[in-house]
Amino acid sequence: MAILPLKDDNVLKRISFQYVTVGLIAACVGVFLWQLSLGDQQGRAALQFGAIPSVLFGARNLAPDLYVIPSYLTLFTSVFLHGGWMHLAFNMLFLWVFGDNVEDSMGHVRYLVFFLITGALAAFAHAAFEAGSSAPLIGASGAISAILGAYLVLHPRSRVLVLIFLGFFIQTVRLPAVIVLGFWIVLQLFSAVTES
Questions:
Q1: pTM of the model
Q2: Is residue 12 within 8 Å of 18, Cβ to Cβ?
Q3: What is the dihedral of CA 172, 173, 177, 179, to 10 degrees?
Q4: How far from 138 is each of 15, 73, 102, CA to CA, in Å?
Q5: Alpha-carbon torsion 38, 57, 112, 101, what sign?
Q6: Measuring CA to CA, which residue among 31, 10, 29, 185 is closest to residue 100?
Q7: Are 37 and 193 in contact (CB under 8 A)?
Q8: Is the pLDDT assigned to residue 127 strictly greater than 90?
């Protein structure tokens, strides 16, 4: 079974348009298109701008030709890189559906800071659990998770229009946000357990 959110019932109250959410989506898509333009050098870009745990914690250094920015800045740049179309599409869909209302509640500037800080903190936390790894961490999933958590706190009674897939059966239905995001959390935990 899969649940895909399409839109929520909340209307914007404090802001007229979700500029930051749209800007973040545009930035992630733009960076991903840049990654694709690199062809077989995409891995090099991930090493240059992804958060590499062993480099962050000083266990190893990047080769001089890969060093572009200080390693602590990769906690921020890694948020805008993605590992494939599906990785990007799902992150941006959840940002689009839920981010506008969090931006509305926080305001543009606080929301942007919240996105960047939580994305960096999530990358740091992930890196801390795999401190010896030389694989770059990339993606906005940590920041998106924080936005979903904020949405759940701010709008627990909201209803979300979702597409439910049960094999060949596809249905749209409105569900409480707590069920939709609860399902997403369980799915993330299951994914983390099965990958480790």
A1: 0.92
A2: yes
A3: -100
A4: 30, 13, 23
A5: positive
A6: 10
A7: no
A8: yes
